[in-house]
Amino acid sequence: MNSTKIRRKVVPAPSENGDTGDKQDQLLLSASICNGEDLGPFIRKTFASGKPEILLRHLEHFRRYKESEIEDVCRAHYQDFIMAVDDLRSLLSDVDSLKSSLYDSNAKLQSVAVPLLTSLDSFVEARSKCRNIAFAIRSLNICVQLMELCSRANFHLSKGNFYMALKSLDSIQRDFLDKTPSSTLRRMLEKQIPAIRTHIERKVSKEFGDWLVEIRIVSRNLGQLAIGQASAGRQREEELRIKQRQAEEQSRLSLRDCVYALEEEDDGNSGMEEAGENGFDLTPLYRAYHIHQTLGLEARFQKYYFENRKLQLTSDFQVSSMTPFLESHQTFFAQIAGFFIVEDRVLRTGGGLISKMEVENLWDTAVSKMCSVLEDQFSRMHTANHLLLIKDYVSLLGVTMRRYGFPIDALLDVLSKHRDKYHELLLSDCRKQIAEALAADKFEQMYMKKEYEYSMNVLSFQLQTSSIMPAFPFVAPFSSTVPDCCRIVRSFIEDSVSFMSYGGHLELYDVVKKYLDRLLTEVLDGALLRVINGSMSGVTQAMQMAANMAVFERACDFFFRHAAQLSGIPLRIAERGRRQFPLTKARDAAEEMLSGLLKQKVDGFLSLIENVNWMADEPLQGGNEYVNEVIIFLETLVSTAQQILPVQVLKRVLQDVLSHISEMIVGALLGESVKRFNVNAVMGLDVDIRLLESFAENQAPLLSEADANQLKSALVESRQMINLLLSNHPENFLNPVIRERSYNALDYRKVVTISEKLRDQSDRLFGSFGTRGGAKQNPKKKSLDALIKRLKDVN
């Protein structure tokens, strides 16, 4: 059958009996229908204009046009339709023969397939039963495994093995809950599994709560043990320093036969540390944390743990007002130390239970609170020993916590801040002790019967002047004040070093030396001055005090060496920066007091100078009475003082006394009581001064030749005055060279006054009447008069 070509759709031309708008609308509608477009816009437009009949007319026109087109197509293909109908009729007989063949084939198939279908039905039934049995077996296996897991979970629960119980529950929930064939069993599991988890969480939380209560007691004991370890370590360091000081002292004394050995430190510290760290059990904590991790509650447990431990730390900060802090401070600091030892262990082994930042924040809070407590308690303390006890424990706490990596600078700053207050309290205590020691001293030489007394009072302060042990009983050159004050100062040094040590002070010796200087210059020197100026009543006491001051010079050297040794610096460095004797005022006052009392004694003998015959007819050969008494007194003084006073002190005192005697002799010539004197009297004074000079020279074996000459020089003023009066040419005094060499100690005003009193033998009363105007003037007298006139002119 031939096919014809489809002709192109052509929209019919509109009729000419409409207006232009209707034609246009009709063309657009026809084009849209031919192209299969949406006619909605045309319908809306028609109803909007209120003329639907126009749209109907256009559609009717389009229908008529298409019907005519269909008719044209049918007419064009009519022959083809006829031929197709004929072909279909020819196929009808073939279809009938095919139908009969199919019927015969179906009958044969039915006869053959009936037995086969019967067998197939039996097979299907058997297969269904097999499937049911296999399903039942699988279900039973699942139930058996489920029951085994449930039994295992119950067993772990009964034994308290919660982690394995939770693992069993997780296995049931993950592997069997959705596969359980029994809906009843599934509902039971869905109900019991959350209940079991809640039960485990409660049990673990209770165990954790019990651990929180127990760990507070453990923390206190742990802190005390750790601080005890720090104390033991400090003791070992102190023993090592003592050995070092002994070795340094031997080296300083040039003992070359020292034996050096390398000592191994015992591992006691590590053993104690291990015992301390293993002394508390974190198993309940880690178990609770692990269980909560398994339950998926890790973050909640971390928060719960941190908040509870923070509350515990806050309660540890409470200081009881019923108990003195001096009694409770060890428990207070040990509790905090133990708390952070536990937290350090948890941080290192807890697997993220607490973070480093959280521990640091807790430590910052603790340090702030401890600093506040220390500030408050230190401000209330008025006893240096109490402050030192608390400082020592705080420093041990610092050593302990530094070992665990916690910063302690703020605590050390608090201790440093109260360093001045502590030393002020310590100085106040020492001031009282020194005052009591001085008040109890009778200023008599100490009497030591046994060697241990010598060691305790002399050797322990290095006051000995010889390395040879003396015979006992031994009479010391000092009184009980010296060893008593030395013990007080040594205790001050040790307490000061103890307070300053273990605080990171780089210039420890300088700080200790500063306070030691204050103790010696302000406290000890001031106390000695008060005693010297107030209660010294006799030569014996004054002499003993002067002897004590000489011993104090050696003691002060020991004090600074002791401070250097305790501060851990070499002695050569300490000796390099040694300053002058800090008790200079007291020493000078003691020597001045002794000299003053001796001068008073000497003045009693010098009062006999009034008995001198100033217009003697002939000079005395053995000296005047007063000088003999003075020399006897001075010799007695030397024999007594040399047993107590050091040579240099004795020399200074004698020099001062001799200088006073010289001034008194010149003063006698200068005084109003002596109106005139002659050469014989001057010659008698010359003998007196020679006797005194001989006394000074006789001290050379005791002192030295140079010291004896210095003693002799104390009489220089009286010697030069007598030499001038006995000189044949006194006008040589006006010669600057001769005056500087021979009369440099003389004041020209005194020379004028005394020279005017000198009378010649011919100047006796009525002695010159018979020769007046007839005798020549004495050349010496003439020279002396010229000297007096010139000096008056100068004046």
Structure explained in plain terms:
The structure is a single chain. Helices cover 74% and strands 1% of the residues. With 795 residues, it is an all-alpha fold. Helix 17 (508-534) packs antiparallel against helix 18 and helix 17 runs parallel beside helix 20. The termini are far apart. 27% of the residues are buried. Keywords: Cytoplasm, Exocytosis, Transport. One of its GO terms (biological process) is vesicle tethering involved in exocytosis. Belongs to the SEC15 family.
Query: What is the mean pLDDT?
Result: 79
Q: What low-confidence regions span 5 or more consecutive residues with pLDDT below 50?
A: 1-17, 254-278, 764-775
Helix content: over 70%
Going by helix content, strand content and strand pairing, the class is mainly alpha
Biggest beta sheet attributes: 2 strands, antiparallel
**Tertiary shape:** elongated
Main sheet: strand order: 1-2
Computed Rg: 64 Å
- From the N-terminal CA to the C-terminal CA, the straight-line distance is 178 Å
Organism: Abeliophyllum distichum
Protein name: Exocyst complex component
Family: Belongs to the SEC15 family.
Keywords: Cytoplasm, Exocytosis, Transport
